[in-house]
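Narrative of activities, Objective 1.

The group set out to show that a structural description can be obtained from nothing but a protein's sequence at a throughput compatible with the screening campaign. Below is one input-output pair from the validation batch, recorded exactly as produced.
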Amino acid sequence: MYLPYKIPISVKGIVFEDNKVWLRYNERNEWELPGGKLDPDEQPAETVVRELREELGFDVKVLGLVHAYKYVIPGSIDESQGVLIIAYVCALLEKVGEFELSGEMGVARFQAFSLDEIADLTMPSFYRDAISRAQEIKMLC
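Output recorded for this entry:
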């Protein structure tokens, strides 16, 4: 009998402002791209727009899909078998709200970093790859 492989999907946004990229500090003491889980009634691009508004208070326009990666988070309740992380590069249209100070996973902290600074941050390497690809796309736009 065939049993489908089911994993959660997390959609992340790469937003540049003043030659810096916005990141979120998470409960695992690492930096990651802001974003969140795909809701059942959403397309991934809709998810990233919603999540960046909720977390950063940013209205954004999705420019393109830049990265997809299955990330296994040992000890996680729903991600120990992996989570599919989809990353989009987004253009900041307008700041319409405040940073989310307390999110679904606890206290939230956001900060913008230059591309040189992210090299020294504690973060999964696939996020660096996604940011690098997003920078290339941004330069073409």
